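TL;DR need structure tokens for one chain.
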Amino acid sequence: MHELGIMTGVVDSVREAALANGACKVFKVSLRVGVMTEVIEESLTFAYEALTEHDPLFSGSELTVTMVEPRSRCTACGLEFSHDRYHVTCPDCGGLGRLLEGRELCIDSIEVDIPDEASSPDEASAAAGNPDLDEASAAASAPFATQDTPSPQA
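>> reply
TL;DR here they are.
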């Protein structure tokens, strides 16, 4: 079951991003998974629940998985077309399709709780001692994608 290994990486990445941005709780993790990866959605969900079951950071969190159907472009005529996992030939000319979508496996977004800096005296004093907390809190105040794009700098 390679879904367990995949989900271990997802949970580790989400934990790292959440904690780096001062989050105390993860509410939701959204994934995009291509059908061509042959990952089974139910197995991902099972692995997520098993990995996060006793983790207070993830307690009660939700996993959403968007399965992406394969889409290709014909290398001969340029037509873009949808298809299943097994039939990748162009419906117009019979040419070979080059896959555009359907093999991705990425974290689309995570929703987290970042406590207000002044919500308690302990948190306020901790924030005062950490100049990076203001920038991290601002960067993580909305759901964010973990892609290769740089995070916004304050």
